[in-house]
Amino acid sequence: MHIGFIIADWKAIEPGKSSTLEIIKECIKRHYKVSILYTNNLTVRNNIVHGFIETVEPMKKIPPTIDAFYKKITFHKTFTALHAFDCLMLRKDPPINPIVFNFLDAIKDEVVIINDVDGIRKANNKLYTTTFHDPENLYLPLTHVSGSKKFIKKTIEESDAQKMILKPLDGSGGKGVIVLEKNARDNINSLLDFYIDKSGEKYVILQEFIEGADEGDVRVLMLNGKFIGAYNRKPAEGEMRANIQTGGTAHKYVMTESQMRICKKIGSKLVADGLFFVGLDMIGDKILEVNVLNPGGITNINRLDNLKLHRLVVDFIEEKVAEKVEKRAEMTYLMKRLNELRE
Ligand SMILES: Nc1ncnc2c1ncn2[C@@H]1O[C@H](COP(=O)(O)OP(=O)(O)O)[C@@H](O)[C@H]1O
Ligand SMILES: [Mg+2]
Question: How far apart are CA 62 and CA 290, in angstroms?
Fold first, then answer.
């Protein structure tokens, strides 16, 4: 089996923190061929999608620690047609150039892509949660999205909330997430000029400040529509964002019954949309966002709960690839029978 990982930068990987590296190590342990590739070297050569890929050189002994494993990895480069892969995992933080999805469209019938290209297209930014239809705000926070300064200003003026959240629609890692205090709204014009520029192509999210946010948020990992693990991220001192990138710290977390019910409720929709491996960000019973491109959390949950979640991910890849192989064999058989009947 040949598994490819579309990543941002191999050199920037931090062993011990990277979920992707844990998954890669598990694949190598299972004797799979593993390659990495970058979005900027996807190439079409005579109508066939290729990539300049870097394949992990076979290693006789796999070092037990993740640090040593990372250091030991060497690659050889080739120019390879992407349909040679059995599975491709997109492990690059958003925003991602939508052209990448068009490259992958050409191979998605042959290669298992996690997450599904059409699913990522749907869930490429924080608008995705609006497809959950929750008019009573049972599990979605009160959220407005707009590219109109007038609309956002009016909504803020009409609200009697003491605090609200303003954030970019396509942000990640906590970038640009700010709290708007009721008594400090003189800045709003300037802020909106920054978030919504003249191009008219930028949207901003205005959201209720969710109760309990000072205790941080919960990263919930969902695989094939089912809960597999969670941990709590507490914001650093003097910080409101709980993202690890903004200094958030990882703590053990036990999901509440109602959180589990919500995960179950949305699980089947995630699968129907081809979103097989995702990270939900939750505060209490509210879902903040669904991370579909490069959800982290495996290393923290493994450490805090003594689990090996990366194994479940690779089990799932195996399952999906087997499913695809079976489907292809069925198709070949049917075509053969059809031809025989015609003769
Ligand atoms: N509505 C909100 N109420 C309270 N805290 C919030 C809210 N929205 C975001 N945050 C805080 O900011 C962090 C980042 O927000 P999120 O919507 O997950 O965007 P990102 O994609 O940047 O991670 C959250 O994990 C949470 O700590
Ligand atoms: Mg988040």
Answer: 34
pLDDT in tens, 96-111: 999 999 999 999 999 9
Q: Based on the domain organization, do 7 and 109 belong to the same domain?
A: yes
Number of structural domains found in the chain: 3
- Judge if the beta carbon of residue 217 lies within 6 A of ligand 1: yes
In ligand 1, the atom with minimum distance to the C-alpha of 288 is: 17
**Ligand 1: does its nearest atom lie under 6 Å from the Cβ of 243?**
yes
Same domain, 199 and 241: no
Residue 141's nearest CA partner among 295, 282, 269 is: 282
First to last CA, the chain: 36
Q: Give the model's pLDDT for residue 74.
A: 97
Q: Report the DSSP beta bridge partners of residue 7.
A: 91
In a domain, 130, yes or no: no
Distance 20 CA to ligand 1 centre (A): 23
pLDDT for position 128: 96
Q: Which residue has the tokens 């960000």?
A: 281
**Is the C-beta atom of 241 inside 6 A of ligand 1?**
yes
Q: Could you tell me if 146 and 245 lie in one domain?
A: no
| Any atom of ligand 1 within 6 Å of the Cβ of 176 | no
**Distance from residue 243's CA to the centre of ligand 2 (Å):** 6
Residue 72, domain CATH = 3.40.50.20
pTM comes to: 0.94
Residue 133 located in a structural domain:
no
Low-confidence ranges of the chain (pLDDT < 50): none
Q: What range does the domain containing 243 cover? A: 213-292
**Residue 299 structure tokens:** 């290393």
